[in-house]
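Sequence design from tokenized structure. All designs in this work follow the same two-part layout: the structure record, then the generated sequence. An example of the structure record is given first.
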């Protein structure tokens, strides 16, 4: 071997060895997937708690976008019919791991890839048919679940019943695709059991501010007494507008997300979103370090916070039942 070639080879090996010693490596590629949120909100400093927490936890674990991390962002913009297309786009980008919000999005991603690891933020993954076993999900999936089962919505409706015992007509703010799931079935079963008549119609798909306003007009025409807001990505984009409309129509409202009651809804009964996202990001880190997602047990929320907005109760002319005030984790005054 010529001396010049030898020195060139030696220099190349030296760079590789020193780089390995320093830990230099290609940035990790994480696909962040949302059913509804715009890409502009899928950032550090987002006004949406879930996304803000996502990036905060990544940074805490040592991942910094633009340095050792590439984040690929995908959204269906709240258009349910685009979910299969988005799933294909995500898989075609070949990320190291996918972090996806929404049960419907996760289910479609599972159908689209069996090799790319998926960490999901979902409702009950068993009810949605995503997994059969929480302790050992298998396949290429793990994640966090906001609810123990679809029966939690029955508890939420019973809280509304306690707050407004004479109410008889309840509306739900959800698209038809949600009402066709086991969660829609559980809502209808609980409403019947508690003596409610369900009024209104599904929110138009794609969900938009205008579609939500049309739904509220229908609720008013049907003389709804109460409103139930399930924890859907679509709804969480329009928190302030939904609360404004519910107050305008004087509709006592229970939400499955604390953001609504902080914004002025009557009450919420929900898991801690930030805690769940942090746990999900820890799973992303473990997968990036070589663990198999199917071996990581799905973490399911077991505790829910009851939060009551006393100011809103007073504005609606409602007395807070003493038993609920005692049970509340937080009362906003």
């Amino acid at each position: 071997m010529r001396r010049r070639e030898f020195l060139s080879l030696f220099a190349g090996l030296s760079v590789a060895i020193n780089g390995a010693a320093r830990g230099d490596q290609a940035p990790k590629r994480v696909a962040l997937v949302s059913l509804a949120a715009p890409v502009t909100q899928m950032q550090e400093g987002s006004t949406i708690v879930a996304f803000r927490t996502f990036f905060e936890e990544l940074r805490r674990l040592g991942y910094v976008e633009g340095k050792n991390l590439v984040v690929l962002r995908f959204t269906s913009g709240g258009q349910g019919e685009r979910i299969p297309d988005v799933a294909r786009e995500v898989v075609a980008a070949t990320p190291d791991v996918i972090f996806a919000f929404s049960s419907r999005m996760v289910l479609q991603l599972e159908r689209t890839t069996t090799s790319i690891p998926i960490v999901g933020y979902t409702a009950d993954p068993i009810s949605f048919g995503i997994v059969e076993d929480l302790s050992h999900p298998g396949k290429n999936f793990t994640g966090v679940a906001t609810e123990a089962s679809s029966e939690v919505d029955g508890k939420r409706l019973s809280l509304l019943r306690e707050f407004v015992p004479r109410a008889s007509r309840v509306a739900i703010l959800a698209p038809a695709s949600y009402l066709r799931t086991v969660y829609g079935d559980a809502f209808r079963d609980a409403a019947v059991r508690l003596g409610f008549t369900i009024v209104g119609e599904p929110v138009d798909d794609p969900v938009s501010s205008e579609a939500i306003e049309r739904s509220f007009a229908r609720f008013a025409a049907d003389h709804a007494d109460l409103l139930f807001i399930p924890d859907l990505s679509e709804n969480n984009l329009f928190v302030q507008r939904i609360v404004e409309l519910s107050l305008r129509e004087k509709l006592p409202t229970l939400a499955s997300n604390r953001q609504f009651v902080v914004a002025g809804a009557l009450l919420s009964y929900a898991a801690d979103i930030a805690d769940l996202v942090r746990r999900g990001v820890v799973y992303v880190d473990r997968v990036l370090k070589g663990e198999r997602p199917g071996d990581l047990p799905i973490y399911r929320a077991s505790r829910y916070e009851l939060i009551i907005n006393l100011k809103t109760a007073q504005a609606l002319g409602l007395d807070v039942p003493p038993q609920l005030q005692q049970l509340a984790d937080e009362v906003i005054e």
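Residues 3-22 form the longest helix (20 residues). We note this feature because it recurs in several other targets discussed in the main text.
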